[in-house]
Model the fold of this input.
Amino acid sequence: MTNPIVKAFWDKPTGSWQYVFHDPDTMKGAIVDPVLDFDPLAGATSTANAEGLLEYVRETGIELDWILDTHPHADHFSAAQWLKSQTGAPTAIGEKVTEVQQLWQGIYNLPEDFPTDGRQWDHLFADGDSFMVGNVPVTVMFSPGHTLASITYVAGDAAFVHDTLMMPDSGSSRADFPGGSSSALYDSISAILALPEETRIFVGHDYAPNREARCEATVAEHRAENIHWKDAPSEAEYRAVRDARDATLPLPKLMLAALQVNIRGGRLPEPEDNGRSYLKLPLNAFQSR
Done:
């Protein structure tokens, strides 16, 4: 088995990690969870993050096979469509994204003809699907809990676990979004931490305030040090900790903006008759926290 070279890219405003991984033998590669920049005060999008990913890909000589999202993010816009427009590489996400689309179609009161079949991506992965990036084998694990559509990409000895786990000193990610479940999250973490102990886990976010941002720890390190897992909690114990923590958290600042872009695969809403796209806010759909 060939293991990938992984390059991480940090987006400080959203606390997000983006990744490019590639096979050193064939130079085939993939991008995971790219960020489209958004200034909520100006309502302005830009492509600085995505351009940085693309510059690395081109300078390194990587031939992109895929642009991969792990789930529809609530804290940043996906740059998958912009990167596809620049490279021609296909986009993909997990097949349960259709359920997220249906859920948020109702929240946003989108028209009945809004597509909720996942056609906004080139490919929808099912649990257990596998594919190759050069000589690197990639397996898809359905990893719900944070959202009902989250998946993990296990590429050689690297697992891109999206927002299921944080770094060991931060524990795990919240499970209180629409469609989230601390019970499902417990099962997903159990499956991820059953991978070989040398597996490199790459997380989707890091918000730790008192150290430099980090993105990587091994399965063994999570088993031994993760503050939500190191004492091998039962499901009931884990859910009690997770649910209590979630009850104290405000909703992400960009959630209501980001989801209407990300259920479209990273596309802005269709322009109106003046040629401009608009975001809408569902007033009083959520309780203030």
